[in-house]
Specification:
Number of strands: 26
Distance between the termini: 78 Å
Radius of gyration: 30 Å
Strand content: 25-35%
Shape: globular
Helix content: 25-40%
Length: about 625
């Protein structure tokens, strides 16, 4: 049999050869570009495209803190180490210096005006911004004095806010004996025994009171040193009931109700409960019927309508109000900081059984179950319906707020520490969703500091080019000295009471051990920071904060699936628990974010060194509400 020949066949063969050569060339080019592609995917997105001097000029009057933040960005981008060091031009240097002076003067003027108009919270915020710049303000403008004036101004109008502000002022600068006596008198008048005890302890602890000839009247001392019985405290706890109408199951209508607990913190009818109890009232994703009530007795007792005043989803806390004058009010001022092994009481309405009291101990401290801070582990029996109820020490002081328990593991229950409630309250009292500050960092503990393992794009930290690998030495001059496992919560505690829009000063340690100083303007913390970052960043970079995989480019792979080498595995992370180790070659196959469900999945091919480089396909899960963000 003879094969066909001819000009057409020859041309076809030549075209096939040309196509094969082209395909080989493309494969070679793709192979050469694989490492470059991997490097590009690991590079952080550009957070600032252009900073113009006229923008800075405009903000010096409108928003001085923003102008000062932009000046810092300009110096970094156009500084001596940049490709275009415009910032080193003498004329531009003088211009930036002039803008900086104008912004500072405007900030000081705005603060003084806020004091004159008795906008105390704004004045204190501006005082903190000025302090972050290292600028001394007038004595009338310092934060402790502003806060104390605010406390006195609120007495009789809003006693809860007044006592919170007085306690905050004392934490910043010890109260004068006359001021402590004034608030003691007001606490007794308001029939808040534990709050009265707080101010009495201040008076007894200072020698200035005796030197000034200030003595505490016997009736005030007797009241403050008294004890409230558990039966009295029960009168300050309510059942919180959220009616969500009916749901259909198997063709039948079933009442859809959420049960929780709450406790009064003010005589005007303000109660604390958990966010997850009342979430349907304020969650924009919930489209159904929802009404919140409280009940002071059993199921036959009348429902009292309530409304949500403010909420803090990150802390699982909510402030609600009912038109009722409670018989007992819990103090959020004289709170307890229990130790492991201390006895505690929990009060609530498990499965609707109101006024239930259980006893136990603090089993552990420092559990990381919330986005911000840590929580207490308790063994007092709590069940569904206890959420939002108070946890008390043996002296009757508030120690925490029940927020979770494990149905599968009896006795494994958790409570939010009372000190975090106190810090969260001012923002909730202001009304609506509490806004928390955000730098845009994800951290890993490396005693004695916290190392930055990820900088989220389009955040204050990214704008000022803070690098991964830097370590945090201090925030606003406060260095963290904490035990292992508590460093990140301590840093979060420094940032927590600050407001978005404020300036903060950071001292960082770079890879060479040198100090790097930054002054940043705080942004609003996203509801789910890592879910927000995953929408803007590459999957290779987001693998660090979510799964604990810090990657570096590697040879091999292809243009579709570049290969990486594990530079570092963060201890305690998903990758660490999965047995991955430094130096393992990795290829990322797939990455998915399930925001509504609150988790992400990463599918990888990995050759584990510990398993003789045997290639394995793994799927790593991670929760989106990481507690290691700042």
């Amino acid at each position: 049999m003879r094969l066909a020949t001819g000009p057409g066949i020859i041309i076809l063969k030549q075209r096939i050869i040309d196509l094969l050569i082209l395909l080989i060339c493309c494969l070679l080019i793709a192979s050469c570009n694989t490492q470059a592609a991997a490097e590009r995917r690991l590079a952080p997105p550009d957070s600032v495209s252009d900073i113009r001097l006229n923008d800075i000029s405009r903000f010096t009057a409108e928003d001085p803190a923003r102008a000062l933040h932009l000046i810092e960005i300009y110096k970094i981008i156009y500084g001596p180490d940049s490709v275009y060091p415009d910032g080193e031009n003498p004329e531009i240097k003088d211009q930036l210096s002039r803008y900086s002076d104008e912004a500072v003067q405007n900030l000081r003027a705005m603060q003084l005006k806020a004091i004159e108009e008795k906008r105390w919270s704004e004045a204190a915020s501006m005082a903190r911004s000025l302090a972050a710049l290292g600028i001394t303000v007038e004595s009338t403008g310092e934060e402790p004095d502003i806060t104390l004036d605010y406390a006195k101004d609120q007495i009789g109008k809003n006693n809860l806010t007044a006592f919170l502000a007085a306690a905050q002022a004392h934490s910043l600068k010890p109260l004068e004996p006359a001021d402590a006596l004034f608030f003691l008198e007001q606490a007794v008048k308001a029939k808040q025994r534990r709050t009265a005890a707080f101010f009495l302890n201040i008076l007894d602890a200072t020698e200035q009171a005796a030197a000034a000839g200030i003595t505490v009247p016997a009736d005030l001392r007797e009241y403050a040193q008294g004890r409230d019985s558990v039966s009295d405290m029960l009168k300050g706890v309510a059942t919180v009931l959220v009616d969500r109408g009916m749901r259909i199951e198997h063709g039948r209508g079933i009442p859809d109700q959420v049960l929780g607990s709450g406790f009064f913190i003010d005589s005007t009818g303000l109660l604390i409960t958990n966010y997850h109890v009342i979430s349907s009232e304020v969650d924009p994703k919930y489209q159904g019927y929802s009404r919140v009530y409280i009940r002071m007795g059993d199921s036959a007792s009348p429902r009292i309508p309530a409304k949500v005043i403010g909420w803090d989803k990150a802390m699982d806390l909510a402030l609600i109000k009912a038109e009722i004058t409670p018989e007992y009010v819990f103090s959020v001022i004289d709170r307890a900081a229990p130790s492991v092994g201390d006895s505690i009481l929990a009060i609530g309405s498990p499965i609707g059984l109101e006024k239930t009291v259980t006893q136990g101990i603090v089993s552990a401290l420092g559990r990381r179950f919330l986005q911000i801070g840590d929580v207490l582990q308790i063994d007092a029996a709590v069940n569904a319906g206890n959420s939002g109820g108070p946890v008390l020490d043996t002296a009757g002081r508030l120690a925490g707020i029940v927020f979770a328990g494990h149905d599968q593991f009896q006795g494994l229950n958790f409570a939010i520490p009372a000190e975090r409630l106190t810090a969260a309250l001012p923002a909730m009292i202001a009304g609506g969703k509490a806004e928390r500050p955000w730098l845009g960092l994800s951290l890993s503990e490396t005693v004695p500091n916290a190392e930055i393992i990820y900088v989220a794009p389009f955040t204050p930290a990214a704008e000022q080019q803070i690098k991964e690998g830097y370590k945090i030495k201090s925030i606003n001059g406060r260095e963290v000295s904490a035990d292992p496992g508590t460093i990140i919560p301590e840093l979060q505690d420094i940032l927590f009471p600050l407001k978005p829009g404020e300036l903060v000063s950071l001292v960082l340690i770079d890879d060479n051990g040198n100090e790097v100083r930054r002054v940043l303007r705080l942004a609003v913390r996203p509801e789910m920071p890592l879910a927000d970052a995953a929408k803007k960043d590459s999957r290779e970079r987001i693998a660090a904060p979510l799964f604990g995989l810090i990657l570096s480019p590697s040879t091999g792979g292809n243009s579709f699936f570049p290969m990486y080498q594990i530079k570092k595995v963060v201890r305690g992370s998903t990758a660490y628990e999965a047995g991955l180790s430094d130096g393992d070659p990795v290829t990322i196959r797939n990455f998915k974010v399930f925001e509504d469900e609150g988790y992400a999945l990463l599918e990888i091919n990995v050759k584990k060194r510990r398993s003789g480089y045997l290639e394995t396909i793994m799927q790593l899960p991670a929760l989106l509400d990481s507690p290691d963000t700042l």
